[in-house]
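User: Assemble these into one structure.

Assistant: Restating your components, then the assembled model:
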Amino acid sequence: MKRIVVAAIAVIGLTAPFVTQPRAQELPRRLGGENGPKKAAEVKRPAPRLADGTVDLSGIWTGGGDAPIPRLLGKDKLDALMMPWAKQKMASVKEADDPYFYCMPGGPLRITGGFAWRLVQPAGERAKYIFMLQEGNAHSFRQIFMDGRKHPDDPSPTWYGHSIGHWEGNTLVVDTIGLNDKFWLDSAGTPHTEKLHLIERYTRTDYNTLQRVVTIDDPGTFTKPFDVTYTAKLGDPDSEIIEYFCIENNQWGERTNANPTAPSLPVAR
Amino acid sequence: MKLGVLALGLALSGLAVPVSAHHSWTAEYDSKKPVTVKGVVSKVEWTNPHTHFYVDVTDASGKVTTWNFEMASTPALERGGWSRKTLPVGTQVTVEGFAGRSVAERAIVTAFKGPDGKEFFVPKLGN
């Protein structure tokens, strides 16, 4: 019968007769665990091209916007770029307050690993848009206008803003404004204002690799623009993006303190 | 032995923990409180951001305690070969994990074994 058992709880330094090593660290290696799509086999091939010669960035990708800015730049360097209010704000934020944990969109910069995303680059007459379809965290999309239009004069701020793109040689350049200040730029809580202007440069440096260099320009937060570089890797061609609605059963936050058997959100069980 | 105790905790010092994707599991769960629980799956929430497996554990006196075990997202589990039917309600399981900081019985999974001891893939914590 179902017996129990349980738990033990021990404290550092306790010498117990049996030692159960926590396994979190060994499992991914032993069982080959990656949470995102499997990566595509490495091939020594240049980036593919569409019939008209344009570099083809389409495909399923993983990663490309994960690392927090202080880690990419160095904390001192970021500190030197931040205005006093921003430094103060960043020092005061708590990880648990990250809007992302409450299933809010992460904004354009934050493409988190462990999820897949698909870049859709239509060809020919339909090449008016590029879409980035994101599995996580808010199961959303980015729409990039490729038809030469300009930004609106005074767009209402949104989570992903207004994005226009063009090609510079083999590099897709995406210019985004009209962003709200409700998301964090990264998991470290790097702040920003509605003056945020992002210039992303996507280059498929080889078949499996999409390099993403982003110029972060926010005169409300930083004393001058600066660049950060991310890298996305191509997913296995057999993998797909999978439905993921974070809001469905999020037990983060207040629910952490709830009775463990209490219903969470009214999901179908 | 009918008895129950299996577990034992341990100390972890200085081990690096995996980076999370949805959120940091160490905020909710205590890496100093490893647990091993043997019981019967009583509910499966095949949901996001994370799946939850509820496991009923009956002690020697017959008292049933329901544990809420959190696992990765459905995409992460599906990519690891799981479906919602992999360990259905009624399955005898042994689960290892870390206890919750506020409520011990709300725990996160690090290892999952079926009735025959077969071990199931457990994705990295946090996604």
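Confidence is low (pLDDT under 50) at residues 1-33, 256-269 of chain A.
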